[in-house]
Write a structure and sequence with these properties.
Blueprint lengths: L2 H36 L10 E2 L12 E2 L2 E2 L5 E6 L6 H16 L7 E7 L6 H6 L4 E4 L8 E5 L5 E5 L5 H14 L4
Parallel strand pairs: 4-5, 5-6
Antiparallel strand pairs: 1-8, 2-3, 2-6, 4-7, 7-8
Helix pairs in contact: 2-4
Length: 181
């Protein structure tokens, strides 16, 4: 084998090696993309469920004291199933405690009780003076707790019971990365 042949063989092997590296890189990237798209390898870190299909406060005609909600603040809505019973009152209590645990971010969040008529029982007004009475169209919502962003998009939904710590974790993360509100 001549020196020229060995040089040609070496050049061809280098070219094949370059193509193999490119094919393996592209193939690996494609496999990772497919796995991530299907949610096989990575999941989400949120504890609540995303509101699907997406809804806004304007679509639900949510109002506070007859006026549309103002922008710029995050909201925690409690949506009872009918009257505000024991589970609803427990959720309101948890959200009041959660609101205090937000520390310096507490001013960025408001709490509201969303009902059809927008009324608050007298004892709720006394027990929760900062609770905002909200009215709106509830047909598209199930009972529970909702996190609403400053633009009015419903982001997460939580069951009425045991939502304290999961709501706090998700809300802290949202407030940390939010550029609005």
């Amino acid at each position: 084998m001549s020196d020229n042949d060995s040089r040609r063989t070496r050049s061809r092997l280098q070219l094949v090696g370059i193509f193999l590296v490119a094919v393996i890189s592209l193939g690996g990237a494609w496999l990772l993309f497919q796995a991530a798209r299907d949610g096989a390898l990575w999941g989400t870190t949120n504890k609540g469920t995303f509101v699907q299909p997406s809804l806004t406060a304007a679509e639900l005609n949510v109002r506070a004291a007859g006026l549309p909600l103002e922008g710029g603040t995050w909201w925690l809505w409690v949506v009872p199933d009918g009257d505000c019973g024991i589970d609803c009152r427990d959720a309101l209590h948890q959200l009041r405690q959660l609101h205090a645990l937000l520390n310096r971010d507490a001013s960025r969040v408001r709490r509201g009780l969303l009902t059809r008529d927008g009324g608050l029982a007298d004892e709720l007004r006394v027990d929760y003076p900062r609770l905002v009475a909200l009215s709106g169209n509830l047909e598209r919502l199930s009972a529970g707790i909702y996190v609403v962003d400053p633009i009015g998009n419903l982001v997460f939904h939580y069951p009425m019971t045991g939502a304290g710590e999961p709501v706090l974790d998700d809300l802290k993360r949202l407030l940390k990365v939010s550029q609005i509100g």
